[in-house]
Specification:
The protein contains 9 helices and 7 strands; from the N terminus they run ββααββααβαααββαα. By secondary structure, the chain is an alpha+beta fold.
Length: about 200
């Protein structure tokens, strides 16, 4: 049902021995990715061992790999998360070994119109952010509803639970049923942890 999105126009360039990948940020997210006086960009570069160029006019991003190719992948993941509405601090979770990014295209998942998109985003977020807050608290994931996408950051098992809850909401399930599902999954996770400790 869901299609995990990668940055649009994502290109791998290896000309002249240079390992570089590039894509575009939404213009309204350029300032967030750069940060005050370039602080966010520098932090990503420092923690991933990469060199990042961001065009402040077009949003084109070039990520040059350092000695560790994995650093380039991590830097792109962080920038992609920022492009999907996450704050830099939340996006930096992806630098941990157990956190992953998943991006769901709402239109692709539902086939809804522009008008329907607003209604569905409202269901996902909930009144005063209630549904998003409950989903984050019960699963441990971070969620951003931005543009036509829902983005999630978390551990694989937590992402699976959050994905199913979102699927229920997109199918029109009552919020009460979704909350009950999330609470049941949280209890199951606690029992599993207790079992591991006993063993």
């Amino acid at each position: 049902m869901f299609k995990n999105l990668t940055p649009r126009k994502f290109v791998d360039h290896k000309g002249r021995g240079i390992r570089m990948k590039y894509f575009r940020l939404p213009k309204e997210r350029i300032g967030v990715a750069v940060g005050s006086e370039g602080a966010v960009k520098r932090e990503i570069e420092k923690r991933t061992g990469t060199k990042i160029d961001i065009d402040s006019e077009t949003g084109e991003v070039k990520v040059f790999a350092g000695d560790d190719p994995m650093g380039q992948i991590l830097a792109i993941n962080v920038l992609h998360a920022i492009s999907r509405g996450f704050s830099p601090d939340r996006a930096m979770q992806l630098l941990g070994s157990d956190k992953y990014l998943e991006v769901i295209d709402i239109e692709d998942a539902t086939g809804c119109s522009e008008k329907g998109l607003v209604r569905i985003k409202g269901r996902i977020i909930g009144e005063k952010g209630k549904t998003r807050r409950i989903l984050e608290e019960t699963t441990g994931v971070s969620m951003s509803v931005y543009g036509k996408t829902i983005a999630l950051i978390g551990r694989p098992e937590d992402l699976a639970t959050a994905r199913e809850a979102i699927s229920m909401l997109l199918r029109g399930s009552p919020h009460s049923a979704v909350y009950a599902f999330l609470e049941r999954k949280r209890r199951e996770a606690k029992r599993q942890i207790a079992k591991v400790w006993r063993e």
